[in-house]
Amino acid sequence: MQDDELLVYSYDATSERHWPDAAVIANTPELVQQAVALCATYHVPLIARGSGSNLSGGTLPILGGLVVSLAGMTRILRVDLAAREVTVEPGVINATLQAHLAPHAFFFPPDPASHRISSLGGNVAEGSGGPHCVKYGTTSHYVRALKVILANGQMATCPAEPTLIDWPGILTGSEGTLALFTELTLGILPKPPAVGTLLAGFDGLPEAVTAVSAIIQAQLLPSTLELLDKATLDTVRPFIDAGYPDCEAVLLIEVDGTLEGVRDQLSRLHELLGLLGASPITVAQNPAQADALMAARRAAYGAAARLSPHLWVQDVTVPRPRLAEMMAYVLTISAQEQIPINTVAHAGDGNLHPLIPFNPDDADEVARMKRADAAILKKAAELGGSITGEHGVGIDKLPSLPLMFNEDERAVMAAVRSAFDPDGILNPGKAVYPVIPQASDPGSLAVEPSSPALYRPQSEPELIDFVRSCYHNHHPIYMGTHSARTANLSLEGLNRILDFDADNMTIRIQGGLDVSEIETFLHHHDLDFPVKTLGPHRSLAALLSEGWPNMLHMGYGPLKNWVLGVSVIDGQGRLLRYGRSVMKNVAGLDMPKLYLGSLGRLGLIVDATLRLVPWATRPVHLSFPVDMMTSDQLMALVDALNMMALGPQGLWLAQNQGHIMVQGPDLDRKVVAIRHILKDFGIVPIDADGVSALSDIRRWYTSQERTRQQEGGTHYFGVGRLPSPLTAPLLYHQPDGSGWISTVKPEPFQFFRSLDSHGWQVNEPLDSGLTAIQERLVHMADPRNLFTHLW
Ligand SMILES: Cc1cc2nc3c(=O)[nH]c(=O)nc-3n(C[C@H](O)[C@H](O)[C@H](O)COP(=O)(O)OP(=O)(O)OC[C@H]3O[C@@H](n4cnc5c(N)ncnc54)[C@H](O)[C@@H]3O)c2cc1C
């Protein structure tokens, strides 16, 4: 390419410029592979690029090197509505996928304001968010499987199946530093039949933020809950006149559901906001008015960008109850530094974007902008938030990572990166703080592992001492009593609730607490953790480490969507905390994903922060016999349920019965609609209380598990659609493909876990490149194999 052509690859949506040495437009996986292999051979930095719309310097070739543009890989390869899944190439633009799905009444929930320009590969690499995330979650909730080119040029398939490492999980949000994605399999959802939009004006910012908390406390769950401050309103109004009022702040709210459900929610919102003094309150009367209101929100960046030659877009997240404090602080800083700051916020997520217009040629203004920016980041971290909710670290936030991570935590992240890319070729100088991991000396011994027979630490420091002494003595750790000579551990003494914030809908709990006790506690507060597994009396640490299928997968997805953070002790006794009590957080690698479901091989989970949902009404359980149904009839029923926007939250087959669990908002209408579908299949279900039904099935599974233990048998666990969902020896089956348990290995499956008298085993015929990375990861986390026998 000529220099002028390279110009295109020298910038992104930040204001910096760095020239690459070369660029290649790679339109096939093979071309991407060749480019990576070449860079690996000659140790040349390689920067993956989608649309270049990132706001963190993520695609800037700061060390020169080769930019590989994937923007030309634009094919939508597969759409499977019944499985709620698409497979696309990485260059497909977010809005193109939405347009493709719209005629089928489906959508891809993550909707960054840049959806018309940003690529899905970029969305996945950044873990992007958008206004709809308050209800539907971020991009990471929708990444099922990936095809990638690894740093050494090998192709690899990162499966959706349960391997030791959640490959799609750790790769999402990795900002081009771990691998290049050449194919993405993403979850999609049926579009709710009705949407309502409401705009509420407020006399003050604190009043608007109070209303946000009140809406959440009232267990209304909007699909959009955006806040614009006065400065933003005054900037946007001349740009797009959508009827935004002249006031101190507005909330732009969208609700979705059935037509009746939307009417109900709008009228409840109207009443609530009226009581809180909102005025005016405008309900969009038609889709055109709703679109105009939304377009004005999306124009906030564009409008602010007209104020000065450059616009600095900040992106921090705080626990939602701290939003008012954070926004007030931004106003203080604005006054203190005498620099205008417009703030828009995904208020429901506690994610705010202070927008700072500035002139790069005015050194004094640049200095004030930078001071304001640094102060905002520091404050967000102090309030328990994140320095980036959705825009990523890139080069911009790299120096600020110490605000959230200590040296050990940064070193372990750097080691994870090295496990994927030992020569540091992929996007060097981005996303992960460049710490060379040092094997720290775990220090002196406080505990002799084999004495007492079962060690029950009562505090985190005691557990750390125990692991360090095991490291020192090369003693593998066993969970529970194994033999008199082994280091036997029980976490039952670590059973405290460390933090419960009903307003934020989060809880932080120690790993030894019994899951059923957690459920009881939450239900007393009208909240729920929407992950239910068959094991009835399991500790939280076991639940998070073992990777059981979520019985409510159909409505809430996998466990990982509901864990915001974990604290772990690694195999050298280092205490590492990743994640915070915030709904959006893309600071550094998504480390919690590495520990969830990894059977403790990468670290012992000490506590976790969970995201909760409202639990105002008890769930409804519908059951029906399946022995008269053929497999085809059953699959047709599953597909029909999967196509419903307001369908069930759980679906499983066990004991010759089909079981449907319905919970959450709009419960009665959902039950009626599901009954309708069942009627079409000639099924009249039996109603039961969901909580009792859950206890029953757990009791039944406990007896199956006891039999397995007595008879020395094996239970096999996997995910994926079974060709014949009713065939014995299936014990338990979620026929939408999200989980099965069998007494014999079902033949078509290569990836599965099994539980036998030796504990958990994982069968995972991974591509060789992934196997090598996994070995490096396990060695990094647990160099003396202390954690081989935990679960
Ligand atoms: C006006 C505007 C509004 C925005 N609004 C939002 C918003 O609401 N929410 C939000 O989250 N973001 C927003 N962004 C930021 C940006 O659009 C997102 O980060 C987006 O996901 C980037 O996509 P992209 O295709 O432009 O990726 P790029 O900018 O090209 O790349 C981003 C990162 O991903 C890596 N990458 C790209 N493709 C691949 C691949 N195939 N494999 C591996 N790594 C890859 C790159 O190396 C880089 O680190 C906005 C940006 C602008 C300019």
Comma- or semicolon-separated keywords:
single chain, alpha+beta, 791 residues, nine-stranded antiparallel sheet, 31% helix, binds flavin-adenine dinucleotide, 36 strands, Uridine Diphospho-n-acetylenolpyruvylglucosamine Reductase, domain 2, eight-stranded antiparallel sheet
How would you describe what is shown here?
This protein is of the alpha+beta class and 791 residues long. Among the domains are: 3-69, Uridine Diphospho-n-acetylenolpyruvylglucosamine Reductase, domain 2 (2-Layer Sandwich); 620-662 and 666-757, no CATH class. The strands form eight sheets. It has a nine-stranded antiparallel beta sheet. Strand 33 (730-734) and strand 34 (739-742) form a beta hairpin. Flavin-adenine dinucleotide is lined by residues 12-13, 47-55, 58-59, 70, 90, 112-114, 118-119, 121-123, 125-126, 128-130, 175-176, 180-181, 301, 390-391, 427. Residues 12-13, 47-55, 58-59, 70, 90, 112-114, 118-119, 121-123, 125-126, 128-130, 175-176, 180-181, 301, 390-391, 427 line the site of flavin-adenine dinucleotide. Residues 16-191, 447-615 form the FAD-binding PCMH-type domain.
Present the secondary structure layout.
Blueprint: H1 3-6, E1 22-25, H2 29-42, E2 46-49, E3 66-69, E4 76-80, E5 85-88, H3 94-101, E6 106-107, H4 120-126, H5 133-136, E7 143-150, E8 155-158, H6 167-171, E9 179-187, E10 189-190, E11 194-202, H7 205-217, E12 224-229, H8 230-236, E13 249-257, H9 259-275, E14 281-283, H10 287-298, H11 300-305, E15 310-313, E16 316-317, H12 323-337, E17 342-346, E18 351-358, H13 363-382, H14 407-420, H15 460-473, E19 477-479, E20 487-489, E21 497-501, E22 506-510, H16 515-524, E23 527-528, H17 540-546, H18 553-556, E24 563-569, E25 575-579, H19 592-595, E26 604-611, E27 613-614, E28 620-625, H20 631-642, E29 650-654, E30 657-662, H21 667-680, E31 686-689, H22 690-711, E32 715-718, E33 730-734, E34 739-742, E35 752-756, E36 759-763, H23 768-781
Parallel strand pairs: 1-3, 2-3, 19-20
Antiparallel strand pairs: 4-5, 5-9, 6-10, 7-8, 7-9, 11-13, 11-14, 12-13, 12-17, 15-18, 16-18, 17-18, 21-22, 22-26, 23-27, 24-25, 24-26, 28-30, 28-31, 29-30, 29-33, 32-34, 32-35, 33-34, 35-36
Helix pairs in contact: 7-12, 12-13, 14-23
Cofactor: FAD
Keywords: FAD, Flavoprotein, Oxidoreductase
Pfam families: FAD-oxidase_C (PF02913), FAD_binding_4 (PF01565)
